[in-house]
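User: Thanks for the earlier help. One more: SusC/RagA family TonB-linked outer membrane protein. Can you show the sequence and predicted structure together?

Assistant: Of course, both are below.
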Amino acid sequence: MAGSTDFATGFSGISTDVLPVRQVVSGTVTDEEGLSLPGATIRVKGSTAGTVTDLDGEFSLDVPDGAVLQISFVGYIMQEIPVNGRSTVNVQLKQDATQLDEMVVVGYGTQKRSDITGAIGSVKSGEFNKGVISNPVDLLQGKMAGVNITSTSGEPGANQNVIIRGIGSLRSGTQPLYVLDGFLLDNSDTGIASNPLNFLNPNDIAGIDVLKDASATALYGSRASNGVVVITTKKGKTGTSQINFSASTAWSSMANKIDVFGADEFRTQVVEAGGALEDFDGNTDWQDELTQVGFSQNYNLSMSGANTEKFSYFASMGYQDQEGILKNSELKRYSGKLNMSQKAFEGKLKIDYNLTASHTENLRPSITSTISDMLSLNPTVPAYTDGQPTLLNTNALNPLKRYELYSDDAANNRILGTIAPSFEIIDGLTYKLNLGVDYSSTNRYQQYKPYTQVINESNISDGTLDVGISSNTNKLVENTLTYNWNNYLHNVTVLGGHSYQTFLDEYRLTSYRGFADNNIEPRYQDQNSTSEYPTTVSSSAVKNELQSFFGRVNYTYGDKYLFTATFRADGSSKFGENNKYGYFPSFAAGWNLSKEDFIDNSVFNNLKLRASWGKTGNQEIPSKITKASYSEDRLSEGSGSLNTYPIDTDATSLDGYPYGIVFTRLANPDLQWEVSTQVDFGLDFAFLDHRLTGTLDYFNKVSSNILLEVVPSDPVEPTSTYWDNIKDMKIHNSGIELGLEYASRVHNDFSYSIGGNITLIKNEVKDSPYSVLTTGSAQGAGQTGATINGYINGEPIGAFYMLEFDGINENGLNMFKDINGDGQVLDNDRAVVGSAIPKVIYGMHMNFNYKAFDLGLNFNGSGGNKVYNHTTMSIFTKAQLARSNNTTDFATQFPEESFNNSNTVSTRFLEDGSYFRLNNATLGYNLDSKLIGLGDAFQNIRLSLTGQNLFVISNYSGFDPEVNTGSTSGGIQTFGIDRFTYPRARTFSINLNLTF
């Protein structure tokens, strides 16, 4: 018994001394005016315990003795308050509307917003566009001045055109340089048809910074001429530990149908047009038959925290399955993310580790054929006969059957890992090593199952298979030294570094034809190469290297006067020995006027002037073009060029003529870097106690040393084309950007914010030696290669260059304007009739909060641009209608038009591309978990409904004015051509977010 008594006594003693004393703390969180803040977060520092305030701003929380509370609310400065035994803690938060101390990611580091001298736009995760998002750049659409983001089509994961302050190159397209957590991505094709950025899970992204002017981008040198997009993923935060789970389901349908004739009207119109009606007694809406309601689902689980000041982590897993509105159109992504940071040696050593892994599956239909069929097929043809897709009378393939036979299936595995240790050598001097590798591997299968009932399309009747295998490896090694020194007035930061990056792209395509019709997919069949259907193999491997030396100096005097100077030297394996390196300097200055005494008591809460000048480069040209290349050739039977001579003078057959060596490319070691020089003048300002903030910028960007593959003027040349810098030719982009944001105070539990941006931009090509450099050309019988738009001296980029339609003459044929007045209409009567690039782009957002409810609306649009409706030119003609193919009333607008009239490229098919779109709307409710008895389990429960692409105001007659599906001409990117574009969807999603 004594032993039992001692044990009990001892246990009692342990209970009293070791178990922590706990107490309940309650209170109210208010703003500076004493108004309650519902939804404010209260956490116990260093633990997972926490809660949120209710509709009256009140909270109650069980805390241990000695607890420190962290109270935070979006837009307000977080406070840390020791409990010190109190049972009541009331907190008044101060608004952080200025965001001047916000850290902005710049090249190889961060800076306070107040110290920035360049033009940098930032969007944080809470401001992102909501809904079904496959590509991270969709998060930014309409959110930032000077950044024009347009989808090429409505396909899940479709490519985006991202244009930052205009287009400044012929060859490199519009894509900016993407930097993910300090790793410079490669924009090359990964072998999957969708956007190469689709491997990133948008839920893992904490913020995106867009570097726009040369001062901000010059530190990235040779790849920064189109701007830089810096993507920062989420990290663990000190003092917090939480688990987040989100789930959503969505449904999508075609947002806008094209008004083709219904069956009854079709019967009438064919007869009235004088055509031979083929009537099959059906009534089919092929747009309905060939589209579907696409369902999507998205699940994400993340864990983050920082148990001590030394270690933080963020880990996530995600799954997204997005169906398109065409059948057999789907994008699946499985993603994982791990970010960790560890400190040692009293914080002097820090190691950051980032790992991103994804598996992406992309299933695609035959888009061009399907869209063409849904718009032009005879609506009197029944979709099905005896339960099977009707075989068309020409033995052509019913598109419903094509869905069963054709597939384009690609699977991509991608892993990106970086490790970045840094060490503070002495006070203020830090060395950092950044090691990373980005590896991508894709298998793509494009196939037609054999279908012998179709006799006029042999590839379908026999079956085909194309197998593409690609891999991309991007390795990066960077070393930097950073030195910080400051005293009361002076603050100096010096950065110096070296970067070495290698790229290896490998591709192999094998094509097969002729498979057994046994209901087994060709990809799973055996197949032997025959003389009738030989197996063909093509392969390539390209390796490039980039070595760089760079430096930057930032100097601040009294927080008033700011100076930045950067320099980068890039050496690329793409250029010849005489111009291996390019040199890219920049300078910038800023003046914080609001720090001056004469501004101190003015209406301005913040006022800063900025000015910058700098150069950036472009090396996005084909590899090895500065080196000579040869091929073997000899006279072939029938006709050809004699590139060799017989060794045996008595030779009587080709065997006596050996292969000769001929040039396919000449060496050009003098090829120079393309350079963009940019000037920027900016103004940052704030009024009304920081509630109204804004930025105003003027920029002027000039691209020179334009790189282009050209045809030699001298016909006696060993090659048909060669690469050169176009002397004196320049591309000018200038414009004005304005961004405004107003945030109200909370009054009667209601608050709102409204903001917007607008960019006015002027593009012009100057001193071009060419009459037109074609960017977009027509396709189809009798049209292939006809110029639609291009680069023309003295005109905007993407200028439409064509004949001006002037009606139908008495013979039923096209009439065009005689521009030069010589009495005849020829090619020299073509004129510039508009541009594919908008003169103005804009966006607007509004956010409303009432108690636990919130509503967010995002709009965007453009003006001053044209769209060439290639779809209309190809199929909506009177000749098509007369052959019993469906059209719109466009084909009947001229009753006197002849069936034999040609669909010549002209302004007849050019339309206004301006639009205004409600891009995104979200209604949300933050449920008080305590009201449903889950207060101890969940920190936050949020339900929301999101609509995307809810309406578009536009005069454009196609599916959507925001398109670009024209063919690239000579490697030069095309703009503003709509040819059988995948339709845009209208999407609604229901979302659940849990924090615990």
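User: Great, one quick takeaway?

Assistant: The two ends are 47 Å apart (CA to CA).
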